[in-house]
Design goal:
Distance between the termini: 11 Å
CATH topology of the largest domain: Nucleotidyltransferase, domain 5
Helix content: 25-40%
Order of helices and strands: EEEHEHEHEEEHHHEHHHEH
Strand content: 15-25%
Bound molecules: zinc ion
Radius of gyration: 19 Å
Number of helices: 10
Shape: globular
């Protein structure tokens, strides 16, 4: 069975064909220009591939409410050419197959729970920390939506006592994304994360903010596992520091079998960076 997967990102569109086991058989990447420039290539690729279903994980915000007139639209994105764009509708006009649609980070969460490091769990959370912070949640065995979809990269955090950085988020200043995403690291320290790899102070502060967010996620969502991915998390020393800070901040308030061993509770992403595109395959399979 040929399943189409479209990971629609703000800088590139990854199109792939896979099968029901999540195996990727073919993959291309197109630059995200304007819809007029980018969409024909995507549609042409899936036409030629002869797919039987399509899963789309998109940058957002997106409208995921199937009862809404703007279901399947990218809504208030700062990328003006894509603002209020009917992404799913335009695909449906050309490709007559069942289509699943969700956010890119929810797709990644679905990939991890179907084939990756959250396999077999019915509640889990996936956090990607890179140029921004995105969060996808599985709760009671399904992706969590709600009024819109979780935007838990923007939760508000308490500032570390000696930290005077104003924060990078244009909306909140010192939300998680404003304090801990790649651009915040770069602005605060004057160098990109990659060039700061050996400086302990950088990663201790980073871990303090990420751990604070994870404690909040545990308290609200009660996930059985926390998965951390994205460019910033390639600094592997962060995992140890985050687990230490998490333990300190949680202060034994929650003690469960899952959190007994934090090495197994707070884990890196699996699937070699393919959780997004594999998650899109899973989104398509849900529609069949
Ligand atoms: Zn924010």
């Amino acid at each position: 069975m040929k399943i189409g997967a479209l990971e629609a990102g703000g800088t590139k569109m990854v199109c792939a064909v896979g099968n029901e086991k999540g195996e990727i058989l073919d993959q291309i990447s197109l630059s995200t220009l304007t819809p007029k420039e980018t969409m024909p290539g995507i549609i042409d690729y899936f036409h030629k591939a002869g797919i039987e279903a399509l899963g789309v994980g998109s940058f957002g915000p997106v409208d995921l409410n199937k009862k809404s007139d703007t279901y399947g639209y990218i809504t208030s994105t700062p990328k003006l050419a894509w603002r209020n764009y009917n992404l799913l509708g335009e695909l449906k006009k050309e490709l007559f197959v069942p289509m699943g649609f969700d956010t890119d980070v929810n797709a990644s969460m679905l990939g991890e729970v179907t084939w990756g490091n959250a396999r077999g769990l019915d509640s889990a959370i996936y956090i990607t920390i890179g140029t921004g912070v995105g969060v996808g949640i599985i709760s009671n065995g399904a992706l969590l939506h709600g009024m819109l979809h979780p935007e838990a990269g923007h939760i508000l955090l308490a500032r570390e006592a000696h930290d005077s950085y104003k924060g990078k988020c244009p909306y909140h200043g010192t939300c998680l994304e404003g304090l801990a995403a790649g651009p915040a690291i770069e602005e605060r320290w004057g160098k990109s994360g990659k060039d700061l790899a050996g400086i302990q102070q950088v990663w201790e502060l980073e871990a303090f903010y990420i751990a604070q967010a994870l404690v909040n996620y545990t308290l609200i969502v009660s996930p059985q596992r926390i998965i951390l991915g994205g460019g910033v998390m390639k600094q592997e020393q962060l995992f140890l520091l985050i687990r230490q800070k998490y333990k300190e901040l949680m202060n034994s308030y929650i003690v469960t079998r899952e959190t007994e061993n934090l090495d197994e509770y707070i884990v890196p992403a699996g699937l070699d960076g393919n959780q997004g595109i594999m998650g899109c395959i899973a989104l398509a399979l849900q529609e069949i």
